[in-house]
Amino acid sequence: MITNLPNLLTLFRIVVIPAMVAAFFLDFPAANWVTFGLFVTASITDYFDGYLARAWNQVSALGRFLDPVADKLLVSSAILMLVATAQITGLAVVAAVIILCREILVSGLREFLAELRVSLPTSKLAKWKTTVQMFALGFLMVGSASPAAIPSVEIGFYALWLAAILTIITGYDYLRVGLKHMAGSA
Q1: What angle do CA 82, 46, 2 make, to 5 degrees?
Q2: Which of 68, 157, 173, 155 is nearest to 114 (CA)?
Q3: Please, what is the average pLDDT of the chain?
Q4: What 3-state class would DSSP assign to 182?
Q5: What ranges in the chain are assigned the alpha helix state H?
Q6: Which pLDDT does position 115 carry in this prediction?
Q7: Which of 95, 122, 125, 181 is deepest in the core (most CB within 10 A)?
Q8: CA 42, 164, 171: angle at the middle one, nearest 5?
Q9: What is the pTM of this model?
Q10: Given this model, what pLDDT does residue 1 score?
Q11: Where are the domains of the chain?
Q12: What is the pLDDT of residue 153?
């Protein structure tokens, strides 16, 4: 019997990352779609692991630790894969770097605040940022394999910039809260 399905969903999100990256490098026309399918499946678990943990009263320390780590690993791996294969190029690389820098900043901030026994809960805007990131990365993964009527690359680039803007806003919000605690602990 599965004792904690939410944690298993979170672990699945981590385990699927190497398969997702490997699928992108396969040499057949549907490789983009296989990658996209794995990414979407992993992204959906991001919603359900937290929802089920709260609904079934299975919130755990492991889940609280693994969930943001799994999110960051999935997004970072997707961005690195898309940059490495020139699916993200030019100025869009700046948006990707903004997203990666914010992820590292917030991780470090959470670690620092944990030492002070201060939690840094995820804001609603940060959840929207994650949704926009997943949306953007999914469109970029499909890329030119999408039907001609759907401009996946353009949608992905615009959404990536929107995610970068939300990333700056939410990163600033988290940093502002963290700096208050840093000043108080000095």
Answers
A1: 125
A2: 68
A3: 89
A4: helix
A5: 5-24, 31-55, 61-84, 92-115, 124-142, 152-185
A6: 81
A7: 95
A8: 90
A9: 0.89
A10: 38
A11: 5-185
A12: 95
150 backbone φψ class: left, alpha, beta (φ>0; ψ -120 to 50): beta
Q: How far is Cα 38 from Cα 34, in angstroms, rounded to an integer? A: 6
Query: What is the mean predicted confidence (pLDDT) over 92-98?
Result: 97
Rounded Cα–Cα distance for residues 2 and 93 (Å): 41
Lowest mean pLDDT among 9-18, 36-45, 46-55, 75-84: 46-55
Q: What residue has token string 């939300």?
A: 166
Q: At what angle do helices 124-142 and 61-84 cross, to 10 degrees?
A: 40
Instruction: Specify the residue for token string 């949704």.
Output: 131
pLDDT digit string, tens, across residues 151-178: 999 999 999 999 999 999 999 998 888 8
What's the one-letter identity of residue 129? K
Two tokens, residue 152: 């996946």
pLDDT at position 54 over 50: yes
12 with 63: CB under 8 angstroms? Answer: no
**92 and 157 in contact (C-beta within 8 Å)?**
yes
Answer whether 16's CB lies under 8 Å from 42's CB. Answer: yes
Superfamily name with CATH number, domain 5-185? CDP-alcohol phosphotransferase transmembrane (TM) domain (1.20.120.1760)
Residue 94: is its pLDDT beyond 60? yes
